[in-house]
Amino acid sequence: MNAMSRCRINWSWCQKNTLPLYGTREVKTMIINDPLNLAPAITAELETVFDPEIPVNIVELGLVYEIITKEDGSAKVIMTLTAPGCPVAGNIIDEVQRKVEGVEGVSRALVELTFDPPWDKSMMSEVARLELGFM
């Protein structure tokens, strides 16, 4: 069971193991499992990754679902895309991997793409909605 499913089933687990995405109207969460305390640095790097067609970073778009670090220095980002047929999917995933690998303390970065749950506009932060004219 992935962490997003776990949150749907066990809200108390989700509250203890997630990081709110601030600035949102609804409560949005990014699940963090981070024994190395690298999630803030990883998140800062992910905030520099943009979909070339949308002038908003992938964190504000709500595309990053989980950040997981392990004692061996590996970091995993579980994310989605705005659409399954995104023509720049490979570029975005490669950029995420490179930027996470560049974080001090990360020895290896993995990026897992998921469409469960599927992304929709409600996952965007308030900042993203304002930037894109949805508010």
Describe the structure.
- The chain has about 140 residues and is of the alpha/beta class.
- The chain has one domain: GMP Synthetase, Chain A, domain 3 (2-Layer Sandwich).
- The protein contains five helices and five strands, in the order ααββαββαβα.
- The protein has helices at about 5-10, 10-15, 40-45, 90-100, 125-130, and strands at about 20, 30-35, 65-70, 75-80, 110-115.
- It has a five-stranded mixed sheet.
- It starts with a helix and ends with a helix.
- This is FeS assembly SUF system protein.
- It holds the Pfam family FeS_assembly_P.
Strand content: 15-25%
- CATH homologous superfamily classification: Fe-S cluster assembly (FSCA)
The number of distinct structural domains comes to 1
Shape: globular
Name the assembly state: single chain
Radius of gyration: 14 Å
User: Unreliable segments (pLDDT under 50, ≥5 consecutive)?
Assistant: 1-16, 19-27
Overall structural class, as computed from helix and strand content, comes to: alpha/beta
DSSP summary, beta strand count: 5
Elements, N to C (H/E) = HHEEHEEHEH
Calculate the mean pLDDT score and round it. 83
In helices, the fraction of residues equals 25-40%
Strand order of the largest sheet: 1-2-3-4-5
Largest sheet: 5 strands, mixed
CATH architecture: 2-Layer Sandwich
* Termini gap: 35 Å
CATH fold title: GMP Synthetase, Chain A, domain 3
Q: What count of helical segments does DSSP give?
A: 5
InterPro entries: Fe-S_Maturation_MIP18, FSCA_dom_sf, MIP18-like
Protein name: FeS assembly SUF system protein
